[in-house]
Amino acid sequence: MPPAPHSNEPRSTADWDTLKRLLPYLWQYKWRVVAALSFMICAKLANVGVPLLLKNLVDTMTPVVGGVQMALVVPVSLLVAYGLLRLSTTAFTELRELVFAKATQGAARSIALQTFEHLHALSLRFHLERQTGGMTRDIERGVRAIESLISYSLYSIVPTLIEVALVLSILAFKFDAWFAWITVAALVVYIFFTVKVTEWRTQFRREANEFDSAAHTKAVDSLLNYETVKYFNNEAYEAKRYDESLERLRQARLKAQTTLSLLNTGQQLIIAIGLVAMLWRATQGVVDGRMTLGDLVMVNAFMIQLYIPLNFLGVIYREIKQSLTDLDKMFTLMEREREVADAPGAKALNAEDATVRFEGVHFAYDPARPILRDISFEIPAGKTVAVVGPSGSGKSTLARLLFRFYDVQQGRICIAGQDVRTVTQSSVRSCVGIVPQDTVLFNDTVAYNIAYGRPGSSQTEVEQAAKAARIHDFIFSTPKGYDTMVGERGLKLSGGEKQRVAIARTLLKNPPILIFDEATSALDSANEKAIQAELQNVAQNKTSLVIAHRLSTVVDAYEILVMEAGRIVERGTHSDLLARQGRYAEMWAMQQSGELAEETDAPLKQEC
């Protein structure tokens, strides 16, 4: 069973809270709200006028049996008035929708945009833990919920209440109070039954939504990992997992449909009893001479006009409740606290002196598992510092902290002498560029992905960056050139091609601080050496942090840090570290012997 959205908070309280949060977005268009309400009242007045006109028409026609002259003159004017009232009802309804459409769409746009911006402002931890399919489904339903909520409440509930008030007033003052009391009793029983049954049914709709999100999540996750599914021949397994979610969704929807049939049957029974009671009272009035045939027609018309919208009350109430639930889920996303937030009054980073300093940094993603322990080092402006060590030693975490994806638990990180926690995140990230180990590209053109490093760049600047990353010739050789689509997450490109696009993107950004996180790990030896030379040229006069696995790529670094288990165990230049015969020297010897073996095997591979 999926968890309920709120464990302890009463649902009605949560619904009112959700409505209160929605109102400010609508009130930005207050004149449209007022105009729409005015048109709605006019439409209902015209609608209530129709039965009154029918009464006059019937009463006028009743005594005229042989009087052809009156039958032709008087009803014509009434019929014209009837047509005008019907037209007015439709015209005012359409004007209401036309005027209020901008408010509805504007509110939906504002909330969706604010949610999108807030999700981008959340920490990396949130995005590593999220389920993309389910989250996007929640946002989709939330946006639709705004339109449904406004449509059903303003276009259905409020107009019906206005019409009920008008009809009850006419019945009570024009006839005896029994008509009003019968109508009120039927309405009270109808609404009570509808609300109670719909509240009971809501659990099945909520279950269906949870299972729908779960199924969507599994489908998206499986399709994003298409290659992995194929590698392990697990198409049947993925289909089985998806089908299990679909089966749970089917069962929940069947329950929802069964209870809907029960709701509709009960509503029709209450409506039928109310109509019979009203018509019996009206018929008795005609027989007793207290009412005319026109009164009977008017009462019947009023009841039909009232019960047609009431017939949809169960659907409307259910949709409003579900819309409130869906909107609440999106508001819950917006309420998610930012793990990393700008300090009040934070100013932009002044990076004229791009010196980077880590001072006694301690960090852990989980308090029970420390990642970095008392890390201190400095990258002087314009210099390159390399970090090497085994996987899991905390090398890539240094880059995440420098970008301020997370805040350190102890110590501090400074750029140009300014603690990154005291300046704006945007200014920090604009001064830092990264070529990550795992390059993910947008499902767009090669040109778009390179230009993403500095939106608005010219085609010439994009091509210059591509040439510097040694990928221009490859792009130029493709049929569509820079307009070539790279596919979902860049899967149409090889690992080396993706990494060179990432390098070009960072070169185009041209920040004063560069991070290369295994930047050439997906390249062959020839391309690695060529691009390494380009990177060294690019890194001149820039502050660079190089995270490397291949030690041959960092031999010229100003300083090399050797990390193990979150600590710096050695530091110095390449020659100094080799002379110490420590951990770095061991790693160097192992890699050199491995490269020698590869070179020895190369001729054999060529012969094969």
Keywords, separated by commas or semicolons:
single chain; 608 residues; alpha/beta; ABC transporter transmembrane region fold; Rossmann fold; 3 domains; six-stranded mixed beta sheet; four-stranded antiparallel beta sheet; 19 helices; disordered C terminus
In short:
With 608 residues, the protein is an alpha/beta fold.
Name of the level-1 CATH class of the largest domain? Mainly Alpha
Largest sheet: 6 strands, mixed
CATH superfamily of the largest domain: ABC transporter type 1, transmembrane domain
Radius of gyration: 36 Å
Count the domains.
Answer: 3
Number of strands: 10
Care to describe what's here?
The chain has 608 residues and is an alpha/beta fold. The chain folds into 3 domains: 11-335, ABC transporter transmembrane region fold (Up-down Bundle); 342-431 and 511-608, 3-Layer(aba) Sandwich (Rossmann fold), CATH 3.40.50.300; 439-509, Rossmann fold (3-Layer(aba) Sandwich), CATH 3.40.50. Helices cover 66% and strands 9% of the residues. The protein contains 19 helices and 10 strands. It has helices at residues 11-27, 30-61, 68-121, 124-129, 132-174, 177-224, 226-231, 235-288, 293-311, 313-335, 395-402, 425-430, 446-451, 459-468, 472-477, 495-509, 525-539, 574-580, 583-607, and strands at residues 356-363, 372-379, 384-388, 410-415, 418-419, 432-435, 513-517, 543-547, 559-564, 567-572. The strands form 2 sheets. It has a 6-stranded mixed β-sheet with strand order 6-7-8-3-9-10. Strands 2-1-4-5 form a 4-stranded antiparallel β-sheet, covered by helices on one side. β1 and β2 form a beta hairpin. α2 (30-61) crosses α5, α3 (68-121) runs antiparallel to α5 and α6 runs antiparallel to α8. The relative contact order is 0.08. Residues 1-10, 64-73 and 596-608 have low confidence and may be disordered.
